[in-house]
């Protein structure tokens, strides 16, 4: 399906998301290094882990309110809040002021704005698409997000150290422009939907709403698998980034001086350039294969590649393992998104999306805790630990999408 045939909401989400994501990736991956340098590894690991838990709680609330009230209104408010928080971070990260605790506080509060934006926007996209077009939408969205990541990471790797204030200002401008565009042009398909009248306290109703998702055992197992699997990649800007920052011996690569920070940038750029260049090729090669087995093979390559990256410090070996990890990522990610959408009841999509964010939040928590665990374990033990987590995730994916042990039907 061509981009021009996508619904207007999807086109807006892809175009605006591209600029938003590129700007964010020029700064956000490097904030972990800033916090670790300023506050220490243990303190930063604890704070980032707490931030993941805080983000999860906010995400659950965001999904509930997106189902209860206007998804578009919540999205616009979240965009504005994020812009305000970036303004505050820009002020307190300025070298003349430099208050790392305040910067960390505002960085953690972005979890609130993200919790308002993500469930509402993703639910709007599912509302605006049919089942037949979703894989095309997910593949295209995934491709543009990774292109944005490549561009943003390249910009950040080159300019973050010397021009980070300028990069922060760019994020603010792009967020404000996107907010205006969403406010004016985004269509909310649920605006005329009859809202449920809630007679109990909203917290009790929120818990009741997520109790439905918790009883959906197939969906819970699927989400748990995501935690184990995605934690491997999320470690790239957590444990792996700090590990390279501390242990990678600087080299001159094709006339460019490469230290640990730039090596992390190179790996991120490699990942995203591969996604940009071979996404549709991998999708074409695997579309006629058994999707369950494609998912499992992709998961194995993905976790093995990122697991080995926890240990290696030789630049060309790192490039090789990230290549295989990226191929695995391309095999598994669209299939995960399609299965996930099929498992969501239509009237509770935002709540299910928010609950499924546990997969990403939990993975972020595991990846952040790697900074703490890495103080005790050496890099080889960390590598084995990550690979074992990935194998557990593979097993859970298989149980969730290919067995009859649950009452809920298997997605086609």
What are the salient characteristics of this protein?
single chain; globular; Growth Hormone, Chain: A; two-stranded antiparallel sheet; mainly alpha; 412 residues; 14 helices
Structural notes for this entry:
With 412 residues, the chain is mostly helical. The protein has a single domain, classed as Growth Hormone, Chain: A (Up-down Bundle), CATH 1.20.1250.20. It has 14 helices and 2 strands, in the order H-H-H-H-H-H-H-H-H-E-E-H-H-H-H-H. The chain has a two-stranded antiparallel ribbon. A hairpin with a 2-residue loop joins strand 1 and strand 2 (256-258). The chain is globular, with a radius of gyration of 21 Å. The model has no long low-confidence stretch (mean pLDDT 81).
Largest sheet composition: 2 strands, antiparallel
What is the domain tally? Answer: 1
Q: Structural class of the helices, strands and pairings?
A: mainly alpha
Q: So what's the CATH class?
A: Mainly Alpha
Q: Supply Rg.
A: 21 Å
Overall pLDDT, averaged?
Answer: 81
**Unreliably modeled segments:** none
SSE series: HHHHHHHHHEEHHHHH
Q: What is the CATH topology? A: Growth Hormone, Chain: A
Distance between the termini: 20 Å
């Amino acid at each position: 399906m061509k981009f021009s045939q996508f619904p207007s909401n999807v086109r807006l989400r892809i175009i605006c998301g591209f600029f938003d994501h590129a700007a964010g990736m020029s700064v956000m991956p490097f904030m972990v290094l800033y916090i670790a340098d300023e506050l220490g590894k243990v303190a930063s690991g604890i704070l980032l882990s707490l931030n993941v838990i805080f983000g999860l709680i906010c995400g659950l609330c965001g999904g509930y309110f997106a189902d209860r009230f206007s998804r578009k209104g919540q999205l616009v408010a979240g965009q504005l809040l994020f812009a305000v928080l970036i303004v505050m971070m820009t002020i307190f990260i300025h070298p003349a002021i430099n208050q790392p605790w305040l910067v960390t506080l505002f960085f953690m509060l972005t979890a609130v704005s993200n919790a308002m934006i993500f469930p509402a926007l993703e639910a709007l996209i599912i509302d605006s698409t049919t089942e037949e077009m979703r894989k095309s939408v997910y593949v295209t969205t995934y491709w543009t997000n990774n292109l944005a990541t490549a561009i943003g990471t390249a910009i950040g790797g080159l300019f973050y150290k010397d021009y980070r204030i300028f990069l922060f200002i760019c994020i603010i401008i792009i967020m404000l422009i996107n907010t205006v565009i969403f406010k004016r042009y985004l269509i909310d398909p649920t605006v005329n939907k009859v809202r449920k009248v809630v007679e109990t306290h909203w917290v009790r109703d929120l818990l009741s709403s997520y109790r439905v998702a918790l009883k959906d055992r197939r969906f819970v197992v699927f989400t748990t698998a995501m935690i184990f699997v995605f934690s491997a990649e999320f470690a790239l800007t957590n444990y792996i980034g700090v590990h390279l920052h501390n242990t990678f011996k600087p080299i001159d690569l094709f006339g460019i001086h490469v230290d640990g920070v730039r090596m992390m940038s190179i790996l991120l750029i490699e990942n995203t350039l591969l996604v940009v260049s071979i996404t549709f090729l991998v999708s074409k090669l695997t579309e006629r294969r058994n999707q369950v087995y494609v998912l499992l093979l992709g998961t194995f390559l993905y976790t093995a590649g990122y697991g080995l990256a926890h240990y290696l410090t030789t630049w060309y070996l790192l490039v090789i393992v990230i290549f295989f990890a990226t191929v695995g990522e391309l095999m598994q990610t669209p299939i995960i998104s399609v299965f996930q959408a099929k498992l969501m009841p239509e009237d509770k999509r935002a709540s299910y999306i928010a609950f499924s964010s546990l997969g990403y939040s939990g993975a972020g928590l595991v990846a952040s805790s790697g900074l703490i665990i890495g103080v005790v374990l050496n890099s080889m033990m960390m590598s084995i630990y990550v690979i074992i987590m990935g194998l557990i995730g593979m097993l859970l994916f298989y149980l969730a999408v290919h067995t009859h042990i649950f009452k809920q039907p298997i997605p086609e």
